[in-house]
Every structure is written in structure tokens, then in C-alpha cells.
Amino acid sequence: MNSNIKQEWFTAYELEGLIDLPKKASNITRKATKENWIKRQIKGKKGVAFEYHYSSFPEKTQKALGFTTNEAEIEKNEFNLQQRIDLLEQKLQALEAKTAQPVAVKPDYLTDDEWRLVCAFRRCNVDRQLIALSAVEALADQTDKELTSSYTATEDSVA
């Protein structure tokens, strides 16, 4: 194992007593939740236990653990992050433009609402298509029941 590799994930118990952190693990956990620290679940432990990434800790705590913050590196990472955000926005715009285009020419036998439903259905993934199908079938069944009870009520009033 390489001794140059630093531990990056810490449990609340491992952080007890460090500078700029509460003294008890339960209070550290509370602080981590309140400040949305980066966390991951510890596998192999009974119950739910988390460990936290050092980058979420206060700066003095990071330094006490042997980590340093390099301002130039932070600025570089922020620049790279902005580039990635810009790229994602471009891709999102391309996807939106693609989905805004009509899927095909509307068949004459469909109403505008039916065509909108078909186009929306086709844009969904398979799981969502199944959900939409079951919802529409449930609505159709409900309509059938209402029509049947309405028909029965009309027959009863005529008789």
C-alpha cells in the first residue's frame, strides 16, 4: 500500500476533538447534516453509518488533518467547473431543440390532443411509458364504470 495516499473519508468518531468541530460525534453528525457535507454510507456496518469527505470540513480542520488548500488549484477547478457547466448547458439546449421538433406529421385520424399525447408518450423512457399506460387505462376503466352506472340509472328511471 502506498504510504503517500491520505485518508480522505472520516467517520464522526474519528473527527471528535479536532479544531473547529464539535467535541461529540453526534454533534459532528448534526453539523454535517446541517452544512450538507459530502458523505457516503459505510458498508458492512449494522444500521446506517456515514463517513464524510475531508473537503467538506472547515479549513482549519482540513489543515489539522494534513490537507492544504491551494488557491490557484481552487481557481483552476472553478474554471474547469464553469467550462463543464457551459458544455452541459449547450448539450441541454441541443436536446431541447431536438425534442421541440415534431416527431412526424400528424395523421389525419388523430385529434390535436391525441397527437400531443402520442408525441409526449414517445419522449418518455420505457418505465414512464408503462406508468402513463397504466394511468390512462385506469382513467378509461373509471370512465367505463361511470358510463355503465349512468346507463343503468337512466334505464331505472325509464322503467
TrEMBL record:
Q: Does the keyword Transmembrane helix apply?
A: no
Q: Which residues form a coiled coil?
A: 71-98
Signal peptide start-end:
none
Query: In this protein, which residues make up the domain named HTH Mu-type?
Result: 6-73
Answer whether the UniProt record assigns the keyword Iron to this protein. Answer: no
Q: Which PROSITE patterns match?
A: HTH_MU
> Taxonomically, which superkingdom?
Bacteria
Q: Please give the InterPro entries that the UniProt record associates with this protein.
A: DNA-bd_dom_put_sf (IPR009061), Mu-type_HTH (IPR003314), WH-like_DNA-bd_sf (IPR036388)
- In the record, what terms sit under GO molecular function? DNA binding
Arranged from A to Z, the UniProt key words for this protein are: Coiled coil, DNA-binding
| Name listed for the protein in its UniProt record | Mu DNA-binding domain protein
